[in-house]
Design brief:
Blueprint lengths: L6 E7 L3 E10 L2 E11 L3 E2 L2 E2 L2 H19 L5 E6 L5 E10 L7 H11 L8 E13 L2 E4 L9 E12 H13 L3 E7 H9 L2 H6 L1 E6 L4 E7 L2 E8 L3 H12 L3 H11 L12 E4 L8 E4 H26 L8 E5 L8 H9 L3 E3 L6 E2 L1 H4 L5 H12 L18 H12 L1
Parallel strand pairs: 1-6, 3-19, 6-11, 12-17, 17-18
Antiparallel strand pairs: 1-2, 2-3, 4-5, 7-10, 8-9, 8-10, 12-13, 13-14, 15-16
Helix pairs in contact: 1-3, 4-11, 6-7, 6-8, 8-9
């Protein structure tokens, strides 16, 4: 049995599934030793709408993960998503007191960068340094010890609705878990799926979940832009249910078994059996019809993503292309359609850089869960429970600064 101190657990509370992934930190890296999943029944578009149902789903997934890992789980790193998430860039400037940059100067300049007006109903989830500028020298990742008179910091700040964060924490607490920290889901997914050279050259991670599509843009080794679109795989399922006049449960099964995002890939003589509603007999339809329902919706999702990236001004910087992850991208034809729309190289992002149960988690649907474990292993020193309503989660900048540098650069 693994030592409890070496255990890191990621809790991915998604719209379609709750996923608990248990990792063990070893000398060689992280080994995945347990996984538990259960259908999610208390969320809509990434936000908790029924705490009791969410708690029940978390407990089922937790039991499965504990059984597989052979250990008791008490602390987790939880993911957060939803349309309420907003990310923006900020800039801070200070004078260097003693002519040499100290950790206190770094803390002061980041405090200056995050001194922006935030409504009372929102809280800071992440403050992520992008780069530092000493006098006129930019592109500095670690300024400590450098000489100069002026220090500037560019940071990316992610905020979320206080109530949404509280509901995630309360759901976990009621399931008997302490939340050590909350992480943005696409940030966690990037930990598991993106290579350092991709982040350096420029890449967009597009995480298509059940209720939301999460976007993270990296360039020059740092996070430049985040966004959450309130559209995802459930909208495709809903289109199928309406278009084929079949129950939602059956529409989801059809999507997973026969779904294809590119109609041109489907043979004209292929057929599918579609269950009817109200006890009527199942019907046999052409698979082409299914493709004609799915393709416009997937195309719409990709066009919304493209529009979001273009509006942020990063569309010309994506040298490495697009990485698709999340459960919805397992559908046939997704990468081909994305390449047509973005006119960029596209690949599926699956968890990498891990050991243990690699075959079990080698799927885009587990990218966030595995990413939360990797994120957690880098923030393992955090003590105590994450407090509801704590507005400056990353206020102890000096202690975690070195970890930031390792994590993002």
């Amino acid at each position: 049995m693994a030592k409890q101190s070496n255990i890191v657990v990621g809790l991915d509370i998604g719209t379609t599934k709750i996923c608990v992934i248990v990792g063990e930190v070893t000398e060689n890296g992280i080994d995945i030793i347990g996984i538990g999943t259960h259908p999610s029944k208390g969320l809509r578009k990434g936000v908790v709408v029924n705490i009791d149902s969410t708690v029940a789903s978390i407990q089922k997934a937790l039991e499965e993960a504990e059984l597989m890992a052979g250990c008791q789980i008490t602390k987790v790193f939880a993911g957060i998503a939803g349309g309420h998430i907003k990310g923006f860039n900020s800039h801070g400037v200070i004078a260097i007191k003693d002519g040499e940059v100290t950790p206190q100067d770094v803390r002061r300049v980041i405090d200056a960068a995050k001194a922006v007006a935030i409504p009372m109903d929102r809280e800071v989830i992440h403050v992520i340094p992008q780069e530092f500028i000493v006098d006129d020298q930019d592109g500095i990742m670690d300024p400590i010890g450098m000489s100069g008179v002026r220090l500037e910091a560019k940071v990316h700040i992610v905020t979320g609705a206080v109530t949404s964060a509280q509901n995630i924490i309360r759901s976990a607490n009621r399931a008997g878990l302490d939340v050590v920290d909350i992480a943005l889901q696409q940030l966690a997914s990037s930990e598991a799926t993106l290579a350092p050279d991709e982040k350096e050259l420029g890449v967009a991670l597009v995480d298509i979940g059940g209720g939301t599509t999460d976007i993270a843009v990296f360039h020059g080794g740092s996070l430049k832009h985040t966004a959450v679109l309130a559209v995802g795989g459930n909208h495709i399922t809903s289109d199928i249910a309406v278009g084929l006049r079949t129950p939602m449960v059956e529409a989801e099964k059809i999507k997973r078994k026969y779904g294809c995002a590119l109609t041109s890939k489907i043979q004209k003589d292929e057929t599918i059996e579609v269950p009817s509603v109200g006890g009527r007999k199942p019907r046999v339809l052409s698979r082409q019809i299914l493709g004609e329902i799915i393709e416009p919706r997937v195309q719409e999702i990709f066009e919304l993503v493209q529009s979001e990236i273009a509006e942020a001004g990063y569309d010309s910087l994506l040298t490495s292309g697009i990485v698709l992850t999340g459960g919805a991208v397992m559908m046939d034809g997704m990468t081909e359609l994305a390449e047509q729309i973005f006119n960029l190289p596209v690949r599926r992002g699956i968890p990498r850089g891990i050991g243990g149960l690699v075959d079990v988690v080698s799927s885009p649907m587990y990218a966030t869960g595995v990413g939360l474990v990797i994120y957690g292993s880098r923030h393992q020193g955090s003590e105590g429970r994450f407090r509801v309503g704590e507005r400056n989660v990353f206020s102890k900048v000096v202690k975690v600064f070195r970890k930031w540098v390792e994590e993002f650069f």
